[in-house]
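RECORD TYPE: inverse folding
INPUT: structure tokens
STRUCTURE:
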């Protein structure tokens, strides 16, 4: 039995090859790599240290989450912890991430040196969202592919379940539960590259309303930097690769609004609406987006936006430390013209600073540029804080 068991869950994205190569290139060799296919037989990247297993049923599709409505890897990770013949230590590697060559060596050294430590976390270079993943058991600071845990600790805790009433952060939840049960250590090194692969959309035939894969994320970064021509090209490529990627279609529409190309904007907004209307039930964040579109075309939008606010307020209560909810509540109330609520949330947002939730900050600034004519409030304090020149 190998000392370390590595588990990768895959939908056979192209980036699986790079993930497997990063395992093959490890300086520490006493490991076995299990690759589990969710409803598919994984592509075989042959190695005597690798086993590939294919599940005939797509288990992940049966356990969606609010921000991953097409499914999650959670059921397969849960199965792996319970059923695989694990080595002394366990770690995961998502199929769009890569280990640095010394990942296993450095992580194993910590656990071998001190038997009282049950789990070790490392940092990661985030190529997709630019988060500060520095290796602490807190939301946004740890990752599924950046920790190693002793087998007995891993098996004593069931990997948490996803549900449509909460975001998919079960990896963070699992790491926290393990850390609550044992002594843990932060290895102050970035031994993982997060978002190395394109993270292409899963081929499950469902509409992607929320941001996920790398190409449109990179396009959005370019657009936020005012590299509009390049951003347009990348957005169009992403849509060509996945024509059910509603998030990308919407961002391209907004880019055209910012560029004062309203005819082009409306063409893609109408594409987005067609996708929206094919789905009977929507996440509240999707209804929020549709409400903005209705206001843009002069239709009744208030009831849908108000219902979205009710759900967002619930999430704010569930996740009080997530400033994302405050940003979007500010925007919602700005569209409704509720100055009092906008001032209330602006005070909280400004007090925390722009770096508190970087990606949400970019999205809010983007919304100011795209929809400033639809805001029925005085937003000068927020635009100044966000350094948005309107």
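DESIGNED SEQUENCE:
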């Amino acid at each position: 039995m190998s000392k370390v068991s590595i588990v990768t869950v895959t939908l056979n994205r192209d980036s699986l090859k790079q993930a497997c190569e990063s395992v093959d290139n490890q300086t520490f060799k006493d490991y076995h790599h299990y690759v589990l296919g969710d409803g598919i037989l994984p592509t075989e990247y042959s190695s005597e240290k690798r086993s590939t297993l294919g599940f005939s049923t797509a288990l992940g599709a049966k356990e969606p989450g609010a921000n991953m409505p097409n499914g999650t890897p959670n059921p397969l990770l849960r199965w792996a912890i319970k059923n695989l013949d694990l080595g002394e230590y366990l770690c995961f590697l998502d199929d769009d991430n890569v280990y640095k060559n010394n990942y296993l060596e450095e992580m194993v050294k910590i656990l071998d040196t001190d038997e009282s430590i049950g789990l070790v976390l490392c940092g990661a270079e985030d190529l997709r969202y630019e988060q500060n993943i520095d290796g602490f058991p807190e939301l946004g600071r740890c990752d599924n592919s950046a920790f190693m845990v002793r087998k007995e600790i891993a098996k004593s805790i069931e990997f948490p379940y996803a549900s449509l009433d909460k975001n998919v952060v079960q990896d963070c939840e699992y790491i926290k539960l393990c850390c609550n049960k044992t002594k843990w250590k932060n290895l102050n090194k970035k031994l993982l590259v997060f978002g190395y692969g394109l993270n292409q959309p899963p081929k499950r035939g469902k509409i992607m309303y929320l941001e996920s894969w790398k190409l449109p994320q990179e396009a959005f970064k370019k657009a936020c930097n005012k590299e509009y021509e390049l951003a347009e090209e990348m957005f169009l490529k992403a849509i060509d690769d996945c024509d059910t990627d509603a998030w990308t279609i919407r961002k391209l529409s907004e880019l055209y609004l910012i560029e004062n190309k309203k005819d082009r904007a409306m063409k893609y907004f109408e594409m987005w609406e067609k996708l929206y209307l094919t789905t009977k039930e929507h996440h509240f964040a999707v209804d929020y987006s549709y409400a903005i579109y209705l206001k843009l075309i002069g239709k009744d939008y208030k009831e849908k936006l108000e219902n979205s606010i009710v759900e967002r307020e619930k999430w704010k209560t569930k996740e009080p430390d997530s400033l994302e909810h405050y940003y979007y509540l500010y925007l919602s109330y700005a569209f409704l013209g509720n100055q009092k609520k906008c001032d209330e949330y602006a005070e909280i947002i400004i007090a925390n600073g722009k770096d508190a939730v970087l990606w949400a900050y970019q999205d809010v600034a983007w919304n100011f540029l795209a929809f400033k004519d639809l805001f029925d409030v005085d937003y000068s304090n927020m635009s100044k804080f966000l350094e948005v020149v309107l």
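NOTES: The mean pLDDT is 92.
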